[in-house]
Design brief:
Order of helices and strands: HEHEHEEEHEH
Number of helices: 5
CATH architecture of the domain at 73-161: Ribosomal Protein L15, Chain: K, domain 2
Distance between the termini: 79 Å
CATH class of the domain at 73-161: Alpha Beta
Helix content: 10-25%
Mean pLDDT: 86
Strand content: 5-15%
Number of strands: 6
Largest sheet: 3 strands, parallel
Strand order of the largest sheet: 1-3-5
Length: 164
């Protein structure tokens, strides 16, 4: 079957600036003077003609914790249970691909169960993770600054100025 283009499927473009009889002569529908009259002008949807825009008229309110929030890499006990090493720290977790960098804060969460005694060193622990690790005969060590000290020393920066 032959596909036929429907009649009048496309609207012809307006012929602007072709005399007063066309209805779009003279200023070609652009009005008199100003940026909108000029070539290359783009009418941005947020522009309000020089009036103070809405996003600046609305008052800023409230509080955002983004600048102050501590960000952790999360590791669950179910992931630690798959590791054969008894000593778990950021180097081991990095080697197993559970964290992205050696210089990030790591938090151990209590999702899952462990059956062996692990000596776990991390930046933070949930209460359930501490309980499960100690019930299994393991040991929990909170060590927040070790990796940051290594990182700052690798940049030849003095540690004392950055650990407030």
């Amino acid at each position: 079957m032959k596909l036929v283009k429907p009649i009048k499927a496309t609207k012809p473009s307006k012929r602007v600036g072709r005399g007063p009889g066309s209805g779009l002569g003279g200023t070609a529908g652009r009005g008199h003077k100003g940026a909108g009259q000029r070539s290359g002008f783009k009418n941005r949807y947020w522009f309000e003609g020089g009036q103070v825009p809405l996003h600046r008229r609305v008052p800023t309110r409230g509080f955002n914790n983004f600048n102050f929030a501590k960000s952790y890499e999360i590791v669950n006990l179910s992931q630690i249970a798959k590791i054969k090493s008894k000593k778990i720290d950021s180097e081991v977790l990095l080697a197993k691909g559970l964290i992205s960098s050696n210089f990030v804060a790591v938090k151990i969460l209590g999702n899952g169960d462990i059956d062996k005694a692990y000596n776990v060193t991390a930046s933070a622990f949930s209460a359930s993770a501490v309980k499960k690790i100690e019930e299994a005969g393991g040991k929990v060590t909170v060590q927040w600054l070790k990796n940051w000290e290594i990182f700052l020393l690798s940049l030849n920066l003095e540690v004392k100025y950055y650990l407030l």
